[in-house]
Structure formats: C-alpha cells, structure tokens
Backbone:
C-alpha cells in the first residue's frame, strides 16, 4: 500500500468536507423526523467524525470551525435548523410576534367588486371609503390593485347600491354588466 494512502486516511477532513457532512447529517435528521432533536453543538457531531477519523483536538477544532462557518439558525430549544437560513428563521420569528393576536378570515362567502379608476386617485378613495362608517358592514377588505380598487363584500347588492350613488349610475346597470 502506498504510504500516501495510509497517511491520507489519518488526515483530518477539511472544513468544507466537515460542513458537507454536517449538512448531510442534519438533512437526514430533518427528513426522518421533520426537525432536529439531537444536534445542538459541534460536540454532538463528534461521534460520527470520530468513527471515521482518529480522535484529536485538531479534529474537534475542524468540526467546530465547520459548525461556526455554516452559521445555522437554532430553534427555540437551541437545536440547529438545516431547512431554513438564519434570515428566514428571523423573519418567521418576527411574523410570529406580529401575527400573535391576529385572526384568519375566509373570504369564501364574499364577492369581489372592482372599482376601475385612475391610479392617482386610488389611495385617496380608499382612505375616504375606509373612513365611512356605513362601509364597515359592507366591506370585508379593501385594497388597491394595478387597475383599480378591489373590495370583497358579503353583501354585493348593498355595496353596489351604496357605491352607485357616488358614481351617479343606477345599481341595476352595474348588476346587468356582470351578465
């Protein structure tokens, strides 16, 4: 056996190689269990690396460098997360904080109504409609779109009648346009 083969088998893996191995281990953990329940720190990976390489302080350092270089986010229990970046995890935490007291409302029972109007007046119209107390019961959501103002309403006939007064048209004309 060539001496280079023997000496290379005793060499520590490169940091890059350790990173790839750690990623594989964490990916496998995520695929099997849906999340990581075993790996919190570099020393948790040492059993695997020591099964392939002789235990040494330099191997430990290399694995520590690899874990540090990966900059993996940690969940609330301190376990490494492989399925998202630190930025994604931070954004999820912010969303959790911001949406904590929010509610999800289905718009299945609502009808979309579009007011086609010029872009320069949309924001002001939305402001005025939002300030109208009579709109509170007529409108579930009100938002600007690229060609008008989209309103989701549970009572389309009442909303159309209400808006037709401002538009100076008959609500029957609007309802007949849909057919």
Residues:
């Amino acid at each position: 056996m060539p001496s280079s083969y023997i000496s290379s088998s005793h060499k520590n893996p490169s940091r890059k190689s350790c990173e790839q191995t750690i990623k594989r281990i964490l990916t496998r953990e995520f695929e099997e269990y849906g999340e990581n329940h075993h790996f919190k720190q570099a020393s948790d990976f040492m059993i695997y690396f020591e099964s392939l390489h002789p235990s040494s302080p330099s191997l430990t350092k290399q694995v520590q460098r690899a874990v540090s270089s990966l900059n993996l986010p940690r969940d609330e229990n301190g376990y490494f997360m492989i399925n998202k970046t630190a930025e994604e995890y931070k954004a999820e935490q912010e969303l959790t904080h911001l949406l904590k007291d929010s509610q999800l409302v289905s718009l299945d029972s609502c009808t979309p109504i579009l007011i086609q109007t010029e872009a320069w007046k949309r924001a002001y119209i939305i402001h005025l409609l939002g300030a109208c107390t009579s709109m509170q019961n007529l409108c579930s959501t009100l938002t600007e779109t690229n060609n008008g103002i989209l309103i989701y309403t549970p009572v389309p006939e009442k909303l159309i009648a209400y808006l037709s007064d401002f538009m100076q048209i008959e609500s029957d004309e609007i309802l007949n346009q849909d057919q």
User: Anything to note?
Assistant: Helices lie at 3-9, 15-33, 46-52, 57-70, 86-99, 119-131, 156-167, 171-177.
